[in-house]
Structure formats: structure tokens, C-alpha cells
């Protein structure tokens, strides 16, 4: 065996494929424990930006990146650099095809690069969220090409990322890490690797269990969000305040976990991960995962429901949606970050544009965004735009907003996040 499975006191060279919201924080944590870190990305412009000290990730400031560079971090797009790495961690995107099927092209491309440039004895870890069996059935055969053998020529594990952008309480160091190896030795090596900078490690029976655990986490959230989204629609029609219902139910000290409705689900996990699980169940077992399918239908329908509520507000003022001035506040998928991945606000903006509304947006962290081929610029001043609009819609409650002041400046204010208590506001 070329590689020692003990990592507690050893410094290593680690290559991380993918330098986004998962890969860059991982690189920072490894720099802090003394590793030499290679941040690999095929985007050469991004590589140049990182090496110049400019971060594109909310959780990594330019000052933090400067410390990483001083500690030996280096971004690269040269595949042969992977041959320097004792450990290779794959943190590339796993989106959905337009058809809704999993898109593993990034994982496949990364796995090809690793297989062609892997150092003998390297530990390879997949962190990209995927359906159970990907590590075993896709990645392992690629690494075994040319006669290489698991635990002799390389080690292989899966450890799902649990990055929550913008979370000030939980980060990569104090969030428990799930690790599943393709063998006992591979699992032990990966667990030892993460123990150097993560406070708690949970080792699963194998890679499939680790892959399924990540999907369960976000499917749980997806299904419960769908429950309260559907309940919010019924409560509105019944004249019941859903936000007061949730607050009341949350007073129970056991047996209830609160979830909250909203304009849809966004981010790199909740809208995507359940589809991976549903896809695998359908492919392998030939049956529908009915809970997931129903939840996706409800959550995917929320942007259009929000638009229908905007239309009703305007109708009460005897105005059509077409031609009315609609201001959207907050376009990111969660508060206080500039992340637009899968944000339902984008679909709401697109629907309103298609329906002929005179729609604009403001986000303190996002100056421009893209709808199809069109680049849309945000308004500079939320207060002025609110006063000039027929209806103002709060889609994301960034801390930078003085919401009470904005309500006072608005003719009609529609709160999709339940952060207001004023009687002259309509809530989702």
C-alpha cells in the first residue's frame, strides 16, 4: 500500500476540484491546519481571480483569501497539478438537466481528470451531492482503469458537503461530517482526513448510505416546506394567518419542528437533491417516490402562485397586472448573501416580465442578474422605487432593508416571508 491511513498529525497536499461555495471554504479549512492546497477549476478566469486575491464566495472574504494564499493556497486549471496531491476532493456541481434528470457531467469530467492524473496511493473523496451508487458505479470503475486496485493503488470515499452559505453559527468545522468508504480502510482514511479540521465525524456503513443520508436531509426539508406552502394557500383562502398558526404550533416543546412558507425553494440543495433520490428510485425500482413528486409540484408552483397573489392585490385597486409597476425586494435564495442559484425570485421576475408588468427589482447584494439572454439591472434606491410602485413584494428579507420604512413608502406591500406584523401588509 502506498498511502498511510493515519492523518491526525500529517500535513498533506490536497487538491480540491471545484472552487465554488463548497470547494473554497474547504480549501480555507485545510490551509488553517497546514496543508498545501491546490484549488482546481476549469474556469481559467476564476483561477486568475482567486490567485489575484479576489473571492467570489460570500463566506470567504478577500482578507481570508489573502491568508490562504500566504499559507500556500494556489488555484490552478492545469490537470497535471493533480499528480502532486495526496488527497483529491471532488466538489463540482450536480445540477439537473432541463428534463429534470440528474446531470452528472461535471462529476464525470472531474473523475476523468482524477483518473488520468492521480498520484499512486491517493485518497479520492467525492463531496458532490448525487444519488446512491454514484461513487461505487461511476467513480470507482474510472479509477480502476489500467488495472489499479482499491486500497492498494488508491482509496475512495464519499462525504457529502454540508455547507450553508451565510450561516454564522455552523460552518465546515463544527458541522458533523458524514463519511462513507468504498472499503473499511478507505472509510478510515477519509475519516482521519476530516478529523483534522472537523469536530465530529459520523462514519456510515459504505458510500451508498452516505450518499442517501445527504438526500434524506434535504428531502426532509423539501417535503415539510411543501406542506406549509400548501397550507399557506389554504389558510389564505380560509382567512387564517398561517404565520400565527406556525408560531402557535412552535410553542410545543416536543414533537414539532417549524417550517415556513415562501415564494419557492432555492439554493444548491433543496430544489435539486430530492429529484436525485426520486430519479434513482424510479430507475432502479420502477416506482414513483410520491411524497417527493408531490412536494416538487407544490414548491415549483409557488412562484406562479405569488404572481397570482400580486395580480389579486392589483385587481382590488382596479388595475391589471399588465403595465402596473411591481417592485421585487431581495432576489437571492436566502437572506444576506448574493447567491442566486435556483432562486424562485428569478422565476417570479420572469413571469411578471412575460405578463407585461412594469417590473423592477432591488437587492443590496446583487446589482445585475440574467433572465435568459437578457441582463437586468436592479434599481439603485429601494425607497424611491417603492414610492413609485403600485405594489412592492418582499421576496427576501435582507438585514439591510428597513422594512417598516419601506412599508410606509409603499401603496401596497406583499410580504412572502412573514417578517412583518403590520395590519396594512398582505402576507403570503
Helix content: 25-40%
Low-confidence stretches: 1-9
Number of strands: 15
Whole-angstrom Rg: 23 Å
The dominant shape is: globular
Order of the strands making up the biggest sheet? 3-2-1-4-5-6-7-8
Largest sheet: 8 strands, mixed
CATH fold field value of the domain at 13-204? Rossmann fold
What structural class do you assign from the helix and strand content?
alpha/beta
What portion of residues belong to β-strands?
A: 5-15%
Structure commentary:
- With 428 residues, this protein is of the alpha/beta class.
- Among the domains are: 13-204, Rossmann fold (3-Layer(aba) Sandwich), CATH 3.40.50; 207-300, NAD(P)-binding Rossmann-like Domain (Rossmann fold), CATH 3.40.50.
- The protein contains 14 helices and 15 strands.
- The chain has helices spanning 23-32, 44-51, 62-70, 105-117, 134-143, 184-195, 207-238, 242-249, 273-285, 290-300, 302-316, 344-354, 382-387, 403-409; strands at 13-17, 36-40, 74-76, 87-90, 122-126, 154-158, 177-181, 201-203, 325-329, 358-362, 368-371, 374-377, 391-394, 413-415, 426-427.
- It has an eight-stranded mixed β-sheet with strand order 3-2-1-4-5-6-7-8, sandwiched between helices.
- It is globular.
- It starts with 12 loop residues before the first strand and ends with a strand.
- Mean pLDDT is 93; it is low at 1-9.
Amino acid at each position: 500500500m502506498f498511502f498511510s491511513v493515519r492523518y491526525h498529525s500529517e500535513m498533506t497536499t490536497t487538491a480540491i476540484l471545484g472552487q465554488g461555495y463548497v470547494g473554497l471554504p474547504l480549501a480555507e479549512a485545510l490551509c488553517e491546519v497546514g496543508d498545501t492546497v491546490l484549488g482546481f477549476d476549469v474556469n481559467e478566469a476564476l483561477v486568475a481571480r482567486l490567485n489575484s486575491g479576489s473571492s467570489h464566495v460570500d463566506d470567504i472574504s478577500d482578507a481570508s483569501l489573502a491568508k490562504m494564499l500566504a499559507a500556500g493556497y494556489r488555484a490552478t486549471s492545469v490537470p497535471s497539478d493533480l499528480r502532486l496531491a495526496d488527497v483529491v476532493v471532488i466538489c463540482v456541481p450536480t445540477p439537473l438537466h432541463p428534463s429534470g434528470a440528474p446531470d452528472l457531467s461535471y462529476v464525470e469530467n472531474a473523475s476523468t481528470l482524477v483518473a488520468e492524473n492521480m498520484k499512486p496511493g491517493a485518497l479520492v473523496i467525492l463531496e458532490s451531492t448525487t444519488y446512491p451508487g454514484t461513487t461505487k458505479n461511476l467513480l470507482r470503475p474510472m479509477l480502476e482503469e489500467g488495472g489499479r486496485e482499491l486500497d492498494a493503488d488508491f482509496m475512495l470515499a464519499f462525504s457529502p458537503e454540508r455547507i450553508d452559505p451565510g450561516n454564522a453559527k455552523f460552518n465546515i468545522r463544527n458541522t458533523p461530517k458524514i463519511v462513507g468508504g468504498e472499503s473499511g480502510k478507505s472509510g478510515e482514511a477519509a475519516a482521519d482526513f476530516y478529523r483534522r479540521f472537523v469536530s465530529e465525524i459520523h462514519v456510515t456503513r459504505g458510500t451508498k448510505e452516505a450518499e442517501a443520508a445527504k438526500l434524506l436531509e434535504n428531502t426532509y426539508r423539501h417535503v415539510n416546506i411543501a406542506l406549509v406552502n400548501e397550507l399557506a394557500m389554504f389558510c389564505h383562502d380560509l382567512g387564517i394567518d398561517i404565520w400565527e398558526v406556525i408560531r402557535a404550533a412552535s410553542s410545543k416543546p416536543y414533537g414539532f419542528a417549524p417550517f415556513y412558507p415562501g415564494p419557492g425553494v432555492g439554493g444548491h440543495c433543496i430544489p435539486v437533491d430530492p429529484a436525485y433520490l426520486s430519479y434513482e428510485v424510479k430507475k432502479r425500482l420502477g416506482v414513483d417516490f410520491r411524497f417527493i413528486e408531490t412536494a416538487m409540484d407544490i414548491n415549483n408552483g409557488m412562484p406562479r402562485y405569488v404572481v397570482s397573489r400580486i395580480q389579486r392585490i392589483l385587481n382590488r385597486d382596479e388595475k391589471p397586472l399588465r403595465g402596473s409597476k411591481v417592485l421585487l425586494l431581495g432576489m437571492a435564495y436566502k437572506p444576506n448573501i448574493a447567491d442566486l442559484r435556483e432562486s424562485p425570485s428569478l422565476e417570479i421576475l420572469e413571469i411578471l416580465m412575460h405578463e407585461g408588468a412594469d417590473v423592477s427589482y432591488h437587492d443590496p447584494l446583487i446589482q445585475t442578474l440574467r433572465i435568459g439572454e437578457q441582463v437586468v439591472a436592479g434599481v439603485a434606491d429601494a425607497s424611491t422605487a417603492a414610492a413609485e410602485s403600485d405594489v412592492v413584494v418582499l421576496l427576501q428579507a435582507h438585514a439591510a432593508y428597513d422594512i417598516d420604512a419601506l412599508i410606509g413608502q409603499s401603496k401596497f406591500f406583499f410580504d412572502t416571508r412573514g417578517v412583518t406584523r403590520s395590519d396594512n401588509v398582505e402576507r403570503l
